[in-house]
Amino acid sequence: ELGDFSPLQSFGCDFQGFYSVLGSIAGMLSGMLIAAFTFMASVGSASGKGDLAAKLPSKRFTSLVALAIFFTAVIVALLPIVASDHYLNTDEGFCYIDWHDGAQSGIMFAFTLPTFVVTLGLFGRALASGGWPNTLDLVLLIASFISAWALWLPASIMGFAQAPFPGGYHIAGGILGHAQALINPYLYGIRWRDSLLALGGELPLHKTGVDSPIGGVDLPAVSPTPPSLPASPPSSVRHIDVPAAPEPEPAFVSTRKLAWGEEA
């Protein structure tokens, strides 16, 4: 038994709703951050001016933005608990925000609509610039982002209108959202990262290739050793034998004692 952590209990429902919304908001804002980096790298590559690294934010700035995203997600996830009527059991196996609560659905709409528009706009501009090595990367990132958050906008509108939700709507949104954890390591950790490294010159760059996850091409193998030298010198070179110098004879040293006034 889950005890107090069961979604049927008040604490368990709030706990499950809290980490679900925290992950949702953090994932959505992180996707927008990746879209911004993609746009800057693509435009910088297309212009061909300056070093790519100079066009991207520093590691320190990126870390600060990531922390800001996390703390923003924590605050938003706490609001239904501390400032509203808590999270709601959806009757579809889990707890989430109460879309029919004006404050909760309003907050979700205020985050979802701008983030949705900005993220898709940045990816679209990156795609139009032609500076990203692999077009398929951007198509997959756009499709992934839309599939994850597309149901939030209609949910907010239905919540404002106090309209009933179709059966299975909540669990469908949950499955699409959690499915991102299965594909994001490949999309962002492999495809996106390797394409960015290709733009920086650390991997081979190939704008038209879509078969390779990094959009790269195979480079010819390089021989690890230099070609061997010819065994004999060219025939045009004339050799002259120089005789060895004779060894000097040892100096004669007399051991006879000289008399006084006698020359050696």
From TrEMBL:
It comes from the Eukaryota. The chain crosses the membrane at residues 17-40, 61-83, 103-123, 135-155, 167-187. Keywords: Membrane, Transmembrane, Transmembrane helix. Residues 223-233 have a biased composition (Pro residues). Residues 223-249 are annotated as: Disordered. SUPFAM superfamilies: Family A G protein-coupled receptor-like. This is G-protein coupled receptors family 1 profile domain-containing protein.
